[in-house]
Write a structure and sequence with these properties.
53% helix, globular, 288 residues, 5-stranded parallel β-sheet, Rossmann fold
Amino acid sequence: MAQAGPSGWLKRAWNAGAARPGALIGIGAAGLMGLVCVQAGQLLRALRKADHTGACECFEHRPALRRARVLVLGDSTGVGIGAADPHDSLAGLLAAEFPNAEVVNASVAGARLVDVIEQCRMQHWPPHHFDLVLLHAGGNDVLRLTDWRALTTDATHLLEQLRCVGKRTIWMGVANIGLSPLFIAPFSWWLSARTRKASRIFATCAARAGVEFVSFFHERGRDVFSSECRKYYSTDGLHPSSHSYRFCYEVLKRRTGMANALRAAADRRRLPRRARSAWPIASPGATQ
């Protein structure tokens, strides 16, 4: 007697499922739980790997002759995790181009917007202490399922705080997390949808607060990072690589008033103290 081929097994399984719909539901649920476990395991391994590779210490720069003050604030992208060297992080690249700018980095890996708010409260910086604030935040809110209403509230409160801390704030948005090599379907589709909605909320809140917002979210086919994953992602498949940080830094210079703000701050500090009070503070505009 000939053994039944794969199609025979599938047919019998389908017939059994048709007779007992609960069996098909159970099989589907088991398969979904298996995917959840696989994806969760991959994410945990990536986060552990990120803790032991690349730039895990926040880059800071304290020049002897300070002409400007910059605050870098946010999550692991502010820390520079994924970069081969701390000097390849955004803070490091900025310090290399503006060596007379003091760079204070208060970023913490894993921080959500609500965590960044708490970071600001604990520091007690004087009003307008910094000439420029670079905010790197939002990705962990996408990953850790922050409620949309809470996300809007947190973003609004955070930007209000930063307007008091710095003369100018630039928020670097989140890339399409669902396109990261780490994630598999259907989770990748879901994360893309969450990132898309979060990016719209961030842009809206930034525009209301008069903060420059640089969006890095793009759909598949237009996304630079996923077009060359080995180049733009670190080995954990989640965080940016040194090439990615360099790309984002060039976009930041091209699309914002960052360079002009730092040059204006340097010029202002070269003036006699009496003349500084008459120096205008640049009025930021929303950039998307």
